[in-house]
């Protein structure tokens, strides 16, 4: 029977199907950080349990790390306590840690790919909503809560309910100046911030295949902003080239074996999706958000929309609320909006 990429990964990891329709999934990789792990480790300690697979667990201090001179340590007391607690927990439970001053330290969603810890066909979880980033490598990756972090640490499994399949095709050639950020904003603007609810989205099409790995990571990172459980992109030669030689990637004969398996990770030609849309690349412009939601998009050469032209009353009210919060007027040219502050963030 034909299967989607999501179906293949899910079925490969199903340990047990429960009577209530949920299933127990095996977890291949578990990333942890200092914010959502303290209570999980305390739960293990209270119940006298160990981390079941410390070799499949990787920790990094990232949310509370200073962006200034780290040699001075962490000035904020609460942030310092969280990072110190992570360090002590990792030492006690024998979990590898990329500490604050480790040259490998970085954003929790990025260190996995950089190290080859992220690999196609794996199930990856982390106590962070943007774990979907790893889907760029053909991994089923999603964020989990603190109690689930404890469950994975203790059992290397997780109880989940299978999502539906949603494929987004982006075909054609992107216009000059249009980036991966614009592509995902266009998708979210098209389906809405709840358009992916109940689904895992597979991104496909000529545009997606032509994106580099970092661009694919941008696409998958923001999948959750469309309400989806996770985002997936089938691995290809770009994926394999990126991972080859990474510290935690398979080596020698194991690399060849892994590659043989990874090359089977794609949706079969006649596989069925519960929902599918196609977006023409030529319709995508450089985009910005004018409101308080990723679906509030406008072209950089366009105008702030007029809520009165919106037929959906609920959407109209939300638009007015966003405009009031942003202190913007309908029909204002985007290029005329004064920028007061610029905040650079990495997720």
Structure commentary:
- It is a single chain.
- This protein has helices spanning 5-13, 38-46, 77-93, 108-115, 146-155, 180-191, 206-210, 213-221, 237-243, 252-262, 313-326; strands at residues 14-17, 23-26, 29-32, 57-60, 96-98, 123-126, 140-143, 157-160, 164-171, 199-204, 230-232, 275-280, 287-289, 297-299.
- With 347 residues, it is an alpha/beta fold.
- A five-stranded parallel sheet has the order 5-4-3-6-7, sandwiched between helices.
- Helix 6 (180-191) links the parallel strand 9 (164-171) and strand 10.
- The longest helix has 17 residues, at 77-93.
- The chain starts with a helix and ends in a 21-residue tail after the last helix.
Quick structural gist:
By secondary structure, this protein is an alpha/beta fold. 32% of the residues lie in helices and 17% in strands. The chain has helices at residues 5-13, 38-46, 77-93, 108-115, 146-155, 180-191, 206-210, 213-221, 237-243, 252-262, 313-326; strands at 14-17, 23-26, 29-32, 57-60, 96-98, 123-126, 140-143, 157-160, 164-171, 199-204, 230-232, 275-280, 287-289, 297-299.
Structural class based on helices, strands and sheet pairing: alpha/beta
Strand order of the largest sheet: 5-4-3-6-7
Give the CA-based shape. Answer: globular
Strand content: 15-25%
**So how many helices?**
11
- Uncertain runs are none
Radius of gyration: 21 Å
Give the biggest sheet: 5 strands, parallel
Per DSSP E runs of 2 or more residues, the count of β-strands stands at 14
Average residue-wise pLDDT: 95
Write the H/E string, N to C: HEEEHEHEHEEHEEHEHHEHHEEEH
Distance between the termini: 38 Å
The amount of helix comes to: 25-40%
